[in-house]
Amino acid sequence: MATNRTFTMLKPDAVEKGHIGAILEKISASGFKIVAMKLTQLTKADAEEFYAIHSERPFYGELVEYMTRGPIVAAILEKENAVEDFRTLIGATNPEDAAEGTIRKLYAESISQNAVHGSDSDENAAIEGAFHFSGRDTF
Ligand code: RTP
Ligand code: MG
C-alpha cells in the first residue's frame, strides 16, 4: 500500500449506536477518499492478532472482547499525509483528552470504547489494510 493511505475501523460501539453514516460523512468531508470498505466482524483470533502489541497490557482481554462483540466497518482511506492527518481527525485515545470536533470527542464513550481506529504508521497501515482486503477489493 502506498504511503498516502491509512486503515480504519469503525468499532462495534460506533456501529451499534448507528454512527456509521455520520462518521463516514466526517471522513469524506475531511478530504479522505474511501478506496476499500466493508462491514465485517473480527474473530477472537483476528482481534488478538490485530492488537498483539497490547497483549501484556491489563486491558487486553477487555479490548479483544469489545472488538469482537459485533460488526465493524473496515476501510482503507487515501489522502496526502493520510496516517498523521487521520490520527488528528480521530483525536486522542481517551475522548476526555480529544480535541473539540474530533471523531472520538463526538462519538466515543470512553478510553476503552472509543469508536474508531486509525493506523499509527505507514508500515502498520499497509499491514492492517492487507489483513482485511485483497488487491481486487482495493481501488
Ligand atoms: P487504536 O489503535 O484503536 O487506533 O487506538 P490508539 O492508537 O489511540 O490507542 P492504543 O494505545 O493503540 O490502544 C488500542 C485500543 O485499546 C483500547 N484501550 N483501552 N482501558 C484502557 O486503558 C485502554 N487503553 C487503550 C482502546 O480501544 C484503544 O483504542
Ligand atoms: Mg493504536
TrEMBL record:
Q: Where in the cell is it found?
A: Cytoplasm
Q: Which residues bind ATP?
A: K11, F59, R87, T93, R104, N114
UniProt GO cellular component terms? cytoplasm
Q: E.C. number, please? A: 2.7.4.6
Instruction: Spell out the reaction equation it catalyses.
Output: a 2'-deoxyribonucleoside 5'-diphosphate + ATP = a 2'-deoxyribonucleoside 5'-triphosphate + ADP; a ribonucleoside 5'-diphosphate + ATP = a ribonucleoside 5'-triphosphate + ADP
Instruction: Read off the CDD domains from this record.
Output: NDPk_I
Cofactor(s) required for function per UniProt: Mg(2+)
Instruction: State the UniProt keywords alphabetically.
Output: ATP-binding, Cytoplasm, Kinase, Magnesium, Metal-binding, Nucleotide metabolism, Nucleotide-binding, Phosphoprotein, Transferase
What enzyme class is recorded for this protein?
transferase
Which residues of this protein are catalytic?
Answer: H117 (pros-phosphohistidine intermediate)
Gene3D superfamilies recorded for this chain?
Nucleoside diphosphate kinase-like domain (3.30.70.141)
Q: Name one GO molecular function term.
A: metal ion binding
The record, for Pfam families, names: NDK (PF00334)
Q: What is its main location?
A: cytoplasm
- Domain Nucleoside diphosphate kinase-like: residue ranges: 3-137
Q: Name one GO biological process term.
A: CTP biosynthetic process
Does the entry feature the keyword Phosphoprotein, yes or no? yes
Q: Which PANTHER family match?
A: NUCLEOSIDE DIPHOSPHATE KINASE, NUCLEOSIDE DIPHOSPHATE KINASE DDB_G0292928-RELATED
Q: Which family does it belong to?
A: Belongs to the NDK family.
Concerning NCBIfam families, the annotation shows: PRK00668.1, PRK14545.1
The record describes the protein's role as: Major role in the synthesis of nucleoside triphosphates other than ATP. The ATP gamma phosphate is transferred to the NDP beta phosphate via a ping-pong mechanism, using a phosphorylated active-site intermediate.
The UniProt subunit note reads as follows: Homotetramer.
Name of the molecule in the record: Nucleoside diphosphate kinase
Q: Species lineage, top-down?
A: Bacteria, Pseudomonadati, Bacteroidota, Flavobacteriia, Flavobacteriales
Q: Which gene encodes it?
A: ndk
